[in-house]
Amino acid sequence: MAGQSGSFFNDVQMAPPIEVFALIDRFKKDEHPKKVNLSVGAYRTEEGKPWVLPVVKVAEVAMVSDPTLNHEYLPVAGLEDFRDASCKLLLGADSPAIVENRTQGVQCLGGTGAIRLAAEFLKRVLKFDTVFVSKPTWGNHKGVFKAAGFSSIKEYRYWNDANKNLDLEGMLQDLKNAPEKSAVILHACAHNPTGVDPTREQWKLIADVLEAKKIFVLIDCAYQGFASGNIDNDAFAPRYFAERGFEFFTAQSFSKNFGLYNERTGNLCVVNRSPEMKAQVKSQLEIIVRTMWSNPPNHGARIVASVLNNNSQFNDWKENVKTMANRILNNRKLLYDKLRAKGTPGTWDHIINQIGMFSFTGLGPRQVTHLIDNYHIYLMKEGGRINMCAITSKNVDYVVEAIHDAITTVPKT
Is residue 298 located within the same domain as residue 159? Predict the structure, then answer.
C-alpha cells in the first residue's frame, strides 16, 4: 500500500551526483566566455568538437545501402563477425589462444557492460567475492562489482603521488597479500585516471605474482590504439598474458578508438585453457546476458565488424586512430612547454611521460575547486585529472595561467 501522500516513492532518497556528469551539466549552464571543460572522457578536435571518424562514415553509408540488413534480434552472444574480429584485434591473429581455438567473445553494452558481465560470472559461477582495483581506478569499477554482489572490494597501490609514477613495489606487495579466489582488474593501456602504465618488464613482474597467487585477471581495455597510436603496442598486456597461458577476461570498448560513444559497443574476450571449456563458459555467460540485456544492439557492432574485416577500411581506421593519438601527444607537449615557460612551480615531466586521454596533474582538491570557481575550468578532483584532448591552442594559455595561479596561491589540500 502506498504512503500517506499516495506515493510509493515518498521515502526514496536523493542519490549523490555522478561527478563527471555533474561537472558536464554545470559547464553547459556556465555562461563565462572562457569556460573550459577538461572533465569529459571523450575525444575532441582542436575546435573542441566531437569527431566522427571518416572510416565510420564510410561503413555507415555502406550499411544503409546493404539490402541484406534487417532489424532481427542478434544472438544472445552478439554478432559473430564482431566478436571474432574483436578478439583477433586484441590478441593478434597469430596468438596461441586464437590459433588453438581457446578464445571467444561475447558482445556487450560497451566496456562497462563487459566488466559487469565479467563480474556477474565471477560472482555467480566461480563464487568469487574479492576483487582488487588500482588506487586510484576508473570511478565505475567499484560500483559495478558492488552491484554484482562483491562484498570485498580492495585496492592495490598504483599511483605514487610523490614521484608522479607507478608504485610498482606497493602494487606487487598488495597483490602478494591477496586471499584465495581473488580477482584483479588491470588496465591494458592508458590507465584511467592516472595515464601511468607499467613498462613491459614491469608487466612481466606483475604476471609472475598473479600466476603464483592464482589470481583471476580481468583486463580493462578501453583505449587500444588510442593510447600510443599503435594497436599492437597498446595490446601488449593481454597478448603477453595469453602467451603465458593465463585464463583471463578482457573487457574491450570501442567508444574511444571508434568514436562510438553512444552506440555502447563492447566485447568480453574470454581466454580459456583449452577449447573444451568454451561451450560451458559461453552457456553460463549467455544465461547472465539473458537476464541483463537479453541480446545486444546491432549498429555499432556492425560498424566495427565491417571495418576490422575489410583490409582497406582497417588501414584507414588505423590512420584515424593515429590522428587522435598524435593530437593527444602533441597536446601533452604543448601543455608541458607552456607550464615550463611560465615557470610554474613543481616538476611537470609527468605530463609528457603519461599516456592516453587523461593526465593526473597532481593538483589537489582545493586547487581544483579554485580552478572551477574562479576560472570556470572544469576538471576532476581526484588527482586533478584532465582530458588532454580538451586542450587546444586557443585555451592552453588560459589553462596554464589558471594552473599557475592555483599552484602558487592555494594549498593542495
Answer: yes
Over residues 12-53, the pLDDT tens digits come to 999 998 888 999 999 999 999 999 999 988 999 999 899 999
Q: Does 45 share its domain with 138?
A: no
Considering only CA atoms, which of 36, 7, 31 is closest in space to residue 392?
A: 36
Residue-range definition of the domain harbouring residue 387:
19-53+326-407
Could you tell me if 80 and 43 lie in one domain?
no
- The residue type found at 292 is M
45 with 115, same domain? no
pLDDT number for residue 23: 92
Task: Write down the catalytic residue from 159, 256, 316, 317.
Answer: 256
Is residue 214 part of the annotated active site? The answer reads no
Examine the domain organization and report whether 90 and 219 are in the same domain: yes
Written as one letter, the residue type at 363 is L
Q: What is the pLDDT of residues 318-332, one digit of tens each?
A: 999 999 999 999 999
- What would the grid cell of residue 403 be? 594552473
Catalytic residue (one of 84, 167, 220, 234): 220
286 with 141, same domain? Answer: yes
The one catalytic residue in 51, 84, 88, 138 is 138
Would you call 208 a catalytic residue per the annotation? no
Instruction: Pull the grid cell for residue 27.
Output: 559547464
Q: What is the pTM of this model?
A: 0.94
Q: How far apart, in whole angstroms, are the C-alpha atoms of residue 51 and residue 49?
A: 6
Residue 4 pLDDT class (50, 70, 90 cuts) = low
Active site residue 256: yes
Spatial separation of the C-alpha atoms in residues 126 and 285, rounded to whole Å: 12
Angle, nearest 10°, between helix axes 311-342 and 299-308? 100
Q: Is 107 left (phi over 0), alpha (psi -120 to 50) or beta?
A: beta
